[in-house]
Amino acid sequence: MVLDPTGLYEFESYIDPRTIRARTLVVTLTGFVDAGHAQRLFDEHVTSTLPNHKVATFDIDQLVDYRGQRPSMVFDTDRFLEFHAPSMTLHQVVDESGVPFLLLAGQEPDLQWERLAKAIEQLVDTFDVQTTVMLGAIPMAVPHTRPVTLTRHASDPSLIPGNQPLFGRVQLAGSFPSMLEVRLAEAERQVIGITAHVPHYLAQSDFPDATLALLRALSEATGHTIPTSALAVSAGAARAQIGAELEQSEEAQALVSALEEQYDAFHEARPRPSIEPTHEDLPTADDIGREAENFLRQLADEQGKDDSPPTAV
After folding, report:
1. For residue 250, is it within any domain?
2. Is residue 35 classed exposed, middle or buried when 0-12, 13-18 and 19+ CB atoms within 10 A define those classes?
3. What percentage of the chain has pLDDT greater than the value 70?
4. 32, 89, 258, 283 — which has fewest CB within 10 A?
5. Domain containing 73 — which CATH number?
6. Is residue 152 scored above 80 in pLDDT?
7. Closest CA to 5 of 122, 129, 114
8. How many domains does the chain have?
9. By C-alpha distance, which of 237, 254, 125, 253 is closest to 190?
10. In angstroms, rounded to a whole number, what is the distance separating the alpha carbons of residues 177 and 169?
11. Distances (CA, A) of 270 to 219, 266, 267
């Protein structure tokens, strides 16, 4: 049994690390920004549509400043009922082709960044990971009516062929995923970063289109096949809701129109990024019908709950 010398994580009791191999580690740790909830939606989609199991759990008490990022709780009438504890877990996921990959999900740590980076580097070596992919999303002045643009970065430019940078050299506030990318690159490990640009006016709302863009870019970079039908249906429903809300505000329509003009002018001289779905990605009519039925059924159930009288305590 391989032990953790850093003391930051613990393997599940049924896991023998010597039996696990994965060519890809996907990191979706959320920090001060998860625009459009793209990382959370990615985690939920992957773990609900593909076979997976937990491999290891990190000791969150060593990594999180609870007063700096106070977890939410539930108070009901005369008692506290729930404490939503932060977490950081490592899962093994099997894609549609039967190829495993690892998913490190949870909250960005506040403390012990260097020790945690060493621990993750150790896991990369233990499981023979070839490429670590960092997924994220940031708010940008872009419209929701245009294709989601991405920023790609890597430890070696050859890992992101055809990349067309949108930014030059900038200095910005650090995050643990960004720092981890630097440390893994310094240790001569292959790292790819993919960041989706979410309309700033939707940064606090679910925006599944950003998650779809991340998922497709991940598949393109690693070859992993992940189903998209359910996410595509959710994205369509979200776009319809956004459109309906925009119809009620001339000011919002003017904002989106201005962003469209800015977007089109900026991208006019640039080839469109390769983020459109391929024929293999497109859901079939049966897939869309099935997922639409599930979506409407869940919506009806939620409305039924909202309309029901409160339960006596």
Report:
1. no
2. buried
3. 84
4. 32
5. 3.40.50.10900
6. yes
7. 122
8. 1
9. 125
10. 19
11. 23, 8, 5
Q: For residue 40, what are the domain limits?
A: 9-166+173-226
Residue type, 11: F
Closest Cα to residue 204, out of 259, 158, 242, 149? Answer: 242
User: Taking CA 122 as the corner, what is the angle to CA 116 and CA 126, rounded to the nearest 5 degrees?
Assistant: 145
Predicted confidence at residue 274, as pLDDT, reads 47
Q: What's the length of the chain? A: 313
| Closest C-alpha to 136, from 126, 148, 151 | 151
What whole-number distance in Å separates Cα of residue 313 and Cα of residue 233?
A: 38
Asked if residue 190 belongs to a domain, the reply is yes
Say yes or no to pLDDT of 164 above 70: yes
Mean of the per-residue pLDDT values of the chain: 86
Contact (Cβ atoms closer than 8 angstroms) between residue 4 and residue 45: no
Task: Name the residue among 88, 195, 216, 218 with its Cα closest to residue 139.
Answer: 195
HEC letters along 16-43? CHHHCCCCEEEECCECCCCHHHHHHHHH
Q: Does 244 map to a domain?
A: no
